[in-house]
Amino acid sequence: MQYIQGIRFSKQFSEEICKVMRSWKKFCRYTVSEKQKYVYNEDRYSDAGYEIKVSNQMMDRKENFHVNLRQYSRLVEVQSSNNHEFIDRIPGIMRHLEPIIIEYAGKVERETGISGLIQEVLSSKPYWTIRYLHYLHQQNKENPDEPKKQIILAKSHIDKHGFTVHLSETEAGVEILSPDERVWQPITIDRRNIGYIMDGAQIQLRTENRKKAVVHRVVSGLNRERYSLVCFVPLIRTAMYNKSKYGSIQSCSGLVTYDLGFTEFRSYFSSVQPSRVDTQSDDNV
Ligand SMILES: [Fe+2]
Fold this sequence. Notes:
It is globular, with a radius of gyration of 19 Å. The protein contains nine helices and twelve strands. It has an eight-stranded antiparallel β-sheet with strand order 1-10-7-12-5-4-3-2. Helix 5 runs antiparallel to helix 6. By secondary structure, it is α+β, with helices and mostly antiparallel strands. About 25% of the residues lie in helices and about 25% in strands. The protein binds fe (ii) ion. The site of fe (ii) ion (FE2) has 3 residues, from loops.
């Protein structure tokens, strides 16, 4: 069974992706106080707004911006004099994503014998979350002789949602741990507009281990900036990783393996059946 699914974008979708990426890069040059007007809000299945994380020790800077249809109106209203295409164009991006996401859900249904996944991803649409990401690793000025080694920007982890659609990146850097040979393999979005879909924790739970969440990491060279664009697809009728008990999934080393039996894997999820989630978007787009 494939663990990475390649996807080809239409010409129109590629053009949309280029526009929002240009806009995101421009936004990254704004002052932090301007960017922080887009307050970060998190709920059980999605989050939206601007976040910045700076590591003084590593001279790393990571900033991201999440947008979904559920919180789209709130983010659009923050825009006063400045309109940003990377926010405004989200409904259009979601329209292009919908057939890709439905097709993939159908493929998972056929491959694993589960049912109802297409319906579940459609019900989850208000929570599909676009993540714009910007990494900057700066050379440590106190140690200019720092060897030109690869820097780990994101340590090995699995994503907590159903699956993740990788849409754009300005630099290579994502590596996946192959389930067979257990070696790190670089994965890139190539110039022929081929992105890919990577399974997350909820798909492994939903398929009872028939599909495995892909262990991956992000590496970079020194002084390299990296911008990327992905879409997280959560499953709102499936239990979510229990963050309050186990902490951030990115730090949960127990899940960074392909070897967990299903009973043990399931123990990392909230035992509470997802309550009926309000699936109304705050914007009818
Ligand atoms: Fe990830």
